[in-house]
Design brief:
The protein has 410 residues and is an all-alpha fold. It has 2 domains: 192 residues, Growth Hormone, Chain: A, CATH 1.20.1250; 199 residues, MFS general substrate transporter like domains (Growth Hormone, Chain: A, Up-down Bundle). The protein has 16 helices and no strands. It is globular. It starts with 5 loop residues before the first helix and ends in a 9-residue tail after the last helix. The relative contact order is 0.15.
Length: 410
């Protein structure tokens, strides 16, 4: 079990953040090479490869939606350590399968395995809830989100360099990263959930719908889960349509788009790693969640109606601040459920991420297309941002809708 010493706790938290960062880096490494690998395996052009790539993403998101509550329930029963390390080991295997895949079917098998064990951040979130004080959770959930974001920023850059040495090289590099975290975890990661604090496993709650029925028994949780879903879809709006929107409205080149997304990622990481702890301490967790959603609204309206390039930088800063809502909501939710339910809660949040990952690309790009092509008789390419702002506003209503006594500051 986790020692009470500050040094042991610090090492454990450092490992968790490093694990999340390396996990995201492994995913990011594959981004630049997947299109080329699909072309090699199918002999199709880039347009058809893009369609297949979309199916691969849908498989990952769908499997994560189904499997995350299962892994969360298993971690509530057997502890966080074995579930996290087994998941990382399976991740390593899935990358190897991608690296040696000779047919498209094997690529889908590997992606299914990745989605099945892709709840590493949710198990890590349960671990953080186990070992931190309530007043610290927003800070550490923010640090976890920043670690994941850092990996996604660094990973594609490394993948772009590695692919010059061979299409399969990035896959084996990602596998080695995952394997390294497994070995490191065996050495330094203690268990965080005491045996007496665990609960029996139940298949009835080891699925998204059963987990939701279980969690809704805790006062205020359904409202906050709804807010979390709206926040995930809203924050996903920008990356879903940004390349198309900026090429249409600002006539940007791919290089400029890449630079802007890099800046967006860096600013987002900075806010989640640094600013959020001070905002949370100053105004409270619930208000931090509402403030983040409010910043999304302001930033999105700037993009939608301010059709000049000079609005981009301030609106990027505002929308990046919107990511503060995610860790704040995770903190509020973790305080609303018992310690032996943290795994199920974090699994449910991972399922929500999966839902958002499916819904956002299905809704926002078609909406952009309809309002930018003239088929509706109205030219308004900023329409997806208005919808994203409306979802954020609905999220504020849910966050502020009902006071939950005893676990959140007003």
């Amino acid at each position: 079990m986790l020692s009470d010493t500050g040094a042991a706790r610090s090492r454990a938290l450092t490992f968790i953040l490093l694990t999340v960062a390396l996990d995201a880096m492994g995913i990011g490494i594959l981004v630049p090479v997947i299109p080329k690998l699909l072309q090699e395996l199918t002999g199709q052009g880039l347009d058809q490869s893009a369609v297949i790539g979309g199916w691969l993403t849908a498989v990952f998101a769908g499997m994560q939606f189904l499997a995350a509550p299962l892994l969360g329930a298993l971690s509530d029963r057997f502890g966080r350590r074995p579930v996290l390390l087994i998941s990382l080991g399976a991740f390593s295997l899935s990358y190897v399968l991608m690296g040696i895949a000779t047919t498209l079917s094997w690529l889908f098998v590997a992606q299914t395995l990745t989605g099945l064990f892709g709840a590493t951040p949710s198990t890590a979130g349960a671990y953080i809830a186990d070992v931190t004080e309530p007043s610290e959770r927003t800070r550490y959930f923010g640090s976890m989100a920043a670690a994941f974001g850092s990996g996604l920023v660094i990973g594609p850059a490394l993948g772009g360099i590695m692919v010059e040495h061979g299409t399969r090289v990035p896959f084996f590099a990602a596998a080695l990263l995952s394997l390294f975290t497994v070995v490191y975890g065996f050495a330094v990661m203690p268990e965080s959930l005491a045996v007496h604090g665990r609960r029996q496993f139940s298949w009835l709650r080891a699925n998204p719908f059963g987990a939701l029925r279980e969690l809704r028994r805790n006062a205020g949780v359904p409202l906050l889960l709804g807010a979390a879903l709206l926040q995930r879809i809203s924050t996903g709006t920008l990356p879903a349509i940004w390349p198309y929107f900026t090429m249409q409205v600002y006539q940007w080149t791919p290089r400029t788009i890449g630079y802007s997304l890099g800046a967006y990622g860096l600013v987002t990481v900075g806010f989640q790693a640094g600013l959020i702890r001070y905002v949370d301490k100053w105004i409270g967790t619930r208000a931090t969640a509402a403030l983040g959603l409010a910043m999304l609204i302001v930033g999105y309206f700037g993009f939608a109606f301010g059709h000049s390039a000079w609005v981009v930088l301030p609106c990027i800063v505002l929308t990046a601040m919107g990511f503060m809502a995610g860790p704040a909501l995770a903190s509020l939710l973790s305080l609303a459920v018992p310690s032996n339910t943290q795994g199920s809660l974090q699994g449910m949040l991972a399922s929500i991420n999966g839902i958002a990952a499916v819904l956002t690309p299905l809704a926002m790009p078609p909406l952009f297309s309809a309002f930018s092509s003239g088929t509706l008789g109205i030219y308004f390419p900023g329409a997806p941002y208005v919808l994203g702002a409306a979802l954020a506003a609905a999220g504020i209503v849910l966050v502020r809708g009902k006071a939950i006594s005893g676990w959140a500051r007003a």
